[in-house]
Design goal:
This protein is α/β, with parallel strands linked by helices. It has 14 helices and 13 strands. The protein folds into two domains: about 110 residues, no CATH class; about 240 residues, no CATH class. Strand 2, helix 1 and strand 3 form a beta-alpha-beta unit. It is globular. It starts with 5 loop residues before the first strand and ends with a strand.
Length: about 350
Amino acid sequence: MNPTKLLKVLTPTDLNTTVENDFPPVLWLNDTFDADHLTSILHDYQPKYIVSDHFSYIDILDKKIYTAPLFLAKILNFLVPNINQNQIFQTRHTFNFVINKKQINRFLCMKFVQLFKLSNYDYTWSGADSRFNMTDIITELDQLQLQGNELLSADEKSHILSDIQIPAKFFYGEDSIMTTDRVTAYWSTLVWLWENGLNEIYSSSVVSLICESVWNQKAAIFTEKTAFAVLGKTFPIWVGGYKQAHYFENMGFDVFHDLIDHSYQYYDTLIERCYYAFKKNLRLLSDHDYAANMRDTHIVRLEHNRQLIASQQISEFCKQTIKQWPIDLQEATHNECENWFDKFWWKDLYKHPNTDL
């Protein structure tokens, strides 16, 4: 591959390393991004193709974004060979949530746990600031009200605008560092976290409330947060994100439509998607005996999902997806894509603090 065919960008400042007016035809976006981020990148740069290695789907700025869940494939190539495969799946909690980084959908998840008075759950939360700027959510609620949709009562609106009351509870590895909005750690710490707490949280729960790395974007993304939920044999409900269940099913996984109402994923606003993830699945989240019975009833299907995610299913899905890209895009991104499938890439994880689980 001619190296000038692809520009890999993590932040807009990465463009400063590119010779002015000599931008390559492929913009490769590493990690997640929103409209402001992409707008700043495209201010003086109009690539022929835009690729995302994290998102499975994103609708943004009317741009065609070529997506593949390469990050999920990569992290699984690291996690699966290194975690303990011997687990005891003994249901003690109805659901779980695992939250570190300060992010709007995660904040709303905790607020709705309290709003719906849910009690039988296990969790982690770093406690990285119990307050959040809710301007965008207030705007969404106001717009819904103008449309005649009073999603929340005055008391409920007041509740979600208040500080988080759930106590912080977190697993700290030797390299964990608390910052203003998260606990940072090396990616290699994911194995330690699984062995020293997360395995127990997931494996003893029926449902995982998965708060992926999305904000207000209409986007679907899958990271270690979804991987852990499946490895723990839990039913997945995504809080935030857009068409998350749809795209996870598209990769070959069972999303349990006969048990979970995933219609929440299609709502237009973030507040609706988060609210209805709870509202439409309250029995599963509140009736522990029912939930535990459903896990026992469908354990074979849960185990099948676990086997799929522990196999090369995601990597093969990525490869098949990439084969559908335009030929010149496949050629330009060939080496970069191959790097994502490198079985020994994870050795570099010990050098880079990056995780925000």
